[in-house]
Write a structure and sequence with these properties.
The protein is α+β, with helices and mostly antiparallel strands. The chain folds into 4 domains: 228 residues, Beta-lactamase, CATH 3.40.710; 54 residues, no CATH class; 191 residues, no CATH class; 104 residues, Zincin-like (2-Layer Sandwich), CATH 3.30.2010. It has 21 helices and 24 strands. A 7-stranded mixed β-sheet has the order 12-13-14-15-11-17-16. A 6-stranded antiparallel β-sheet has the order 1-3-2-10-9-8, with helices on both faces. Helix 2 crosses helix 10, helix 14 crosses helix 15 and helix 15 crosses helix 16. The relative contact order is 0.08.
Length: 600
């Protein structure tokens, strides 16, 4: 059922009905699952209902404007969006494990099970993944009702389609609203905050924690990383004795989506995952899918001397390349490449050096083109996760990019733009990795923590889904979101903290004077990574890194420190500026005579 804007307005005047009534009008069975998403045309909503077996109902019993559903824990998502967009401080919530046998103490301890263990704390991103309501309590965060109202009423469509969102007092699980208004509220969220929330929510679907038994395998299998939702659980509006839940958020192409059925949100996703995936997968547009943030610098033909020529046979000029070129090797082999500014040629001591700079998903697609066959869909999806995992585990951090060779010792990368099929494969698993052990692949020889491409193809042709191919090839690992704030333990890196404490005071004197927006981080923790890419937890003031042995390691520590210090300023997103500062700070430049060496 697709609702046009005109019909939506008329439907909004319809009498209020309760969602999930025991029987639909005309005696039809009540739907076991209902899904609402933004359709292909601007302003259109698509509404689908299914029975317990996943069979579509001929006609949904209500419209998404007349239906009513509890807000449940979705209110936490809107607080998260406001905090991120307004750059408001959100201190960790520290669990107390309130003692006592009173009903209030028992209820508080139960609430804290969604947050942390007594004595431990939880930050903003992890609180959203774990659905920690105590963290998002407006009173704890000091949210002003007037500021809240002014913020949301200024967002497009809120006054008309989701007025409840501007009322801070309505942010409670028992608030009953229309599913359509929830979608309008999600669509009204600012883009930057929406992207931040979507990146965090991906971790929820692949959570390996206490709810692992309820993991929605069919949903992940059918949609990959293309569903980013906050789950909710409450009661049926018409029957408080029946549990009712689902999820709401965004599809990979940024369109809002909502679904619900009987049970908790996790139970609904586990029970109806195949139906959800079948209904939503056909609506996705891979070319519009959000890409995993980050960039990769590739040293092409790193171990084989070559000369780069234009198509007329003349040496290619140094600098950014555009158009077709040919790399000629000493053994007589020639490889063509197509450039549109993403390749840079330099010459050092008469030797050509070619560097490519790509987005992470573009890099994954290029490796698939070079190493495999994108038309083997299941095997290629499995391989795309392995490629991304290997990159994040083995590449070196270089500024805001990862740096890796194009070679058989690492991963071979196509110098030509990847085709639509390879891009769709990489986009389907965007942001997904294997955690628990370093992984790799080989063309035909499997071994521990190494997948053979030929074996993956054979399994795919035998009907095994892509996630099962991974599980069999890497039994020591789990499929997870690359950014999972709730799944990041901190092994204190004492020597790095000591080094940082010794150098930070000097940095702060310079930064306060010359870098607008810098705020001194309060004694940041440094955590030791066993593998993976260094990063900082903006909401918790923690830096994760792999070592402190080289100059590049020290630059990385300074880089992430600067991210923490600029977390409330637009410069915090300027990776080039931050990298320049990190290198200057760690090269010993301190005197006023050399102050002009620092970027502004």
């Amino acid at each position: 059922m697709t609702i046009s804007p005109l019909r939506a307005a008329l439907a909004a005047l319809a009498a209020c009905c309760c969602l999930g009534a025991r029987a639909a009008p005309g005696g039809d069975p009540a739907p076991a699952l209902e899904i609402l998403w933004l359709g292909g045309e601007p302003g259109e909503l698509t509404w689908r209902a299914f029975d317990a077996a996943g069979k579509p109902l001929a006609r949904p019993p209500q419209t998404p404007f007349a239906a009513r559903a509890p807000l449940g824990s979705l209110w936490k998502l809107f607080v998260y969006l406001w905090l991120v967009e307004e750059r408001r401080p959100a201190p960790d919530y520290v669990c107390t494990g309130m003692a006592g046998a009173s009903a209030a103490a028992r209820a508080h301890r139960l609430e804290e099970t969604y947050c942390c263990t007594p004595g431990q704390g939880i930050g903003l991103d992890a609180a959203l993944v774990r659905s920690c309501g105590l963290f998002f309590a407006p009173g704890r965060l000091g949210i002003d009702a007037r500021a809240w109202r002014e913020f949301w009423e200024a967002r497009p469509g809120v006054r008309t389609h989701a007025p409840w969102l501007a009322d801070l007092g309505a942010l409670k699980p028992e608030t009953v609203v229309s599913p359509a208004s929830i979608l309008h509220a999600l669509a009204a969220a600012p883009l930057s905050a929406r992207k931040a929330a979507a990146a965090v929510l991906l971790a929820r679907l692949f959570d390996n924690g206490a709810d692992a038994a309820l993991r929605a395998t069919d949903l992940a299998r059918g949609l990959g990383s293309q569903l980013r939702v906050k789950t909710f659980s409450w009661h049926r509006p018409d029957d408080p004795g029946i549990r009712y839940g689902g999820g709401a958020g965004w599809l990979g192409d940024d369109r809002p989506v909502w679904f619900a059925g009987e049970g908790t949100g996790q139970q609904v996703m586990a029970r109806h995952g195949a139906t959800l995936a079948a209904a939503l997968s056909g609506t996705l547009s891979p070319e519009n899918a959000a890409a995993m943030p980050g960039c990769v610098k590739v040293d092409f033909f790193a171990r084989h001397p070559f000369a780069l020529e234009r198509t007329d046979g003349k040496p290619a000029p140094e600098g950014a390349l555009r158009g077709r070129h040919v790399a000629r090797f000493q053994n007589g082999v020639a490889v063509s490449l197509e450039a549109d500014g993403e390749f840079t040629l330099t010459r050092e001591n008469g030797r050509d050096r070619l560097e490519g700079r790509f987005g992470i998903d573009d890099y994954v697609a290029r490796v698939i083109e070079r190493e495999a066959d994108a038309t083997q869909t299941g095997a290629a999806r499995a391989l795309s996760v392995v490629i991304r995992s290997y990159l994040l585990n083995e590449a070196k951090k270089q500024g805001n990019c990862l740096a890796i060779e194009d070679s058989s010792h690492a991963q071979r990368v196509s110098p030509k733009p990847p085709g639509a099929t390879a891009r769709a494969i990489a986009g389907f698993t965007s942001g997904l990795v294997l955690v628990g052990a370093p992984v790799g692949y080989h063309s035909h020889t499997p071994s521990r923590n190494r997948m053979a491409w030929t074996a993956a193809v054979a399994a795919d042709r035998a009907g095994e889904p892509w996630d099962l191919i991974l599980r069999k090839a890497f039994p020591e690992t789990s499929l997870a979101a690359a950014h999972d704030p709730a799944g990041i333990p901190c092994r204190r890196f004492a020597s790095a903290e000591t080094w940082l404490a010794a150098h930070a005071p000097r940095w702060q004197r310079i930064l306060r004077e010359r870098l607008q927006g810098f705020e001194e981080p309060a004694s940041p923790q440094v955590c030791l990574l066993s593998h993976g890419t260094p990063f900082s937890e903006q909401d918790r003031g923690r830096i994760h890194m792999r070592g402190l042995k080289t100059v590049e390691d020290r630059i990385t520590l300074a880089h992430e420190y600067l991210h923490l210090g600029l977390r409330h300023h637009p410069s915090g997103h300027d990776e080039e500026l931050i990298e320049q500062w990190a290198r200057r700070l760690t090269d010993g430049t301190t005197s006023h005579e050399t102050a002009n060496a620092f970027p502004r």
